[in-house]
Write a sequence for this structure.
């Protein structure tokens, strides 16, 4: 008996018993994906639309209305996740990235939460051959590191991209055959976004054969062997790389580890080959330091430490609500037996700040410059607790050192105070 299924031009190649969340924007690409899925995997799929609240409410409401109509016609349930007004802009400021990158990050976070909560196995996105071509051209134009030429991966974590081998012309054909109307994001015409500029000014002159050739670059780079580099992230203020694992890895893995460390600490500048060479020489030398703006790199026998240095700040003590830079916070709970206990009387008018060059603290063995403690612990800066012009405590443990309390406060009962991630 012949199947009543309509033939598709390619195989989706999805696991037979799994359930799928379709990232659905309502545009022509995701509409093609939901159309394919409605034919093959309808009973195991759900479409999710993330409203970023970035465009006019009227435009978004019309788009959602059309999306509901299309999803209903294709027999796939549609869920709407709406982000708060200004949420994308706040995230972009917090992470020091563009609106486009912030929107993408929040969209994937929302889709992943939905996938976990509802018990789905995979998130499907509608990336296709043109997207892969645009991505590689964009990275070439911005002198991105070699390892990033792996481009868009067909499978990554819980994300699968079953349309990655299809050209845009095949996507359009599929949707037109279905008789469905799709929505157009007005921001897609804004050529201030580099990807839009590439799409409108470069892609029309590239043939499908040339797109496949460019895509093969991504496949070749993605298939290169890899050796894991031992990297430990401590919030946005410190990263540690094991020297031996770095030196024994492949060149592209070294580059990726160094780039990731610097990016995590807020570096947005292009990383020069000379800097990578300097870091590798420092790892072999096992001593010294490199400075890159507000990032300091120090080399030890077994590791490389990357530190993000905050600018000067003053933060009044407000318990666990005290605001510190670089994602650090104050905590009044700690299982560390060496955690500082500070009397309430010393906290009432206290402030946290970055240590100055001439700061001193009175310890059991007398007055010590904070700079000498930094030298002892091989770390580049400290946070101090000051009360009425006197340094009562020095916090170094969050950078791998040991916190110190003024000898005047030693032995007195008080509140646990720690600086943590």
């Amino acid at each position: 008996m012949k199947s009543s299924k309509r033939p598709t031009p390619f195989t989706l190649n999805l696991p037979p018993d799994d359930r799928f969340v379709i990232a659905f924007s309502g545009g022509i690409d995701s509409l093609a994906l939901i159309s394919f899925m409605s034919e093959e995997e309808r009973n195991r799929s759900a479409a999710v639309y993330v409203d970023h609240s970035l465009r006019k409410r009227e435009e978004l409401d019309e788009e959602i209305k059309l999306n509901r109509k299309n999803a209903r016609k294709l027999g796939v349930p549609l869920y709407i996740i709406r982000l708060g007004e200004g949420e994308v802009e706040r995230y972009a400021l917090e992470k020091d990235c563009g609106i486009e990158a912030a929107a993408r990050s929040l969209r994937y976070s929302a889709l992943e939460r939905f996938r976990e909560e509802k018990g789905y196995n995979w998130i499907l996105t509608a990336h296709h051959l043109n997207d892969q071509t645009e991505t590689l051209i964009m990275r070439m134009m911005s002198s991105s590191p070699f390892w990033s030429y792996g481009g868009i991966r067909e499978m990554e974590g819980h994300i699968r991209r079953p349309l990655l081998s299809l050209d845009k012309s095949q996507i359009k054909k599929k949707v037109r055959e279905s008789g469905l109307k799709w929505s157009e994001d007005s921001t897609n015409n804004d050529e201030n976004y580099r990807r839009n500029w590439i799409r409108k000014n470069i892609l029309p002159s590239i043939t499908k054969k040339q797109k496949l050739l460019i895509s093969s670059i991504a496949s070749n780079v993605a298939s290169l062997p890899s050796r894991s580099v031992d990297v430990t992230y401590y919030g946005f203020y410190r990263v540690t790389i094991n020297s031996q694992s770095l030196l024994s890895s492949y060149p592209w893995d070294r580059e990726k580890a160094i780039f990731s460390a610097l990016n995590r600490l807020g570096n947005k500048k292009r990383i020069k080959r000379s800097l990578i060479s300097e870091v590798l020489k420092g790892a072999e030398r096992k001593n010294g330091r490199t400075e890159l703006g507000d990032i300091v790199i120090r080399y030890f026998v077994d590791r490389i430490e990357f530190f993000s240095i905050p600018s000067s700040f003053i933060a009044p003590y407000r318990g666990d609500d005290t605001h510190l830079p670089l994602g650090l916070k104050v905590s009044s709970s700690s299982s560390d037996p060496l955690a500082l206990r500070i009397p309430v009387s010393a906290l009432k008018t206290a402030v946290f700040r970055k240590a100055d060059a001439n700061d001193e603290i009175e310890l059991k063995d007398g007055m010590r410059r904070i700079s000498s403690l930094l030298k002892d612990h091989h770390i580049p800066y400290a946070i101090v607790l000051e009360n009425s012009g006197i340094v009562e405590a020095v916090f170094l443990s969050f950078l791998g050192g040991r916190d110190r309390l003024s000898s005047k406060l030693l032995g007195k009962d008080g509140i646990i105070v720690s600086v943590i991630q």
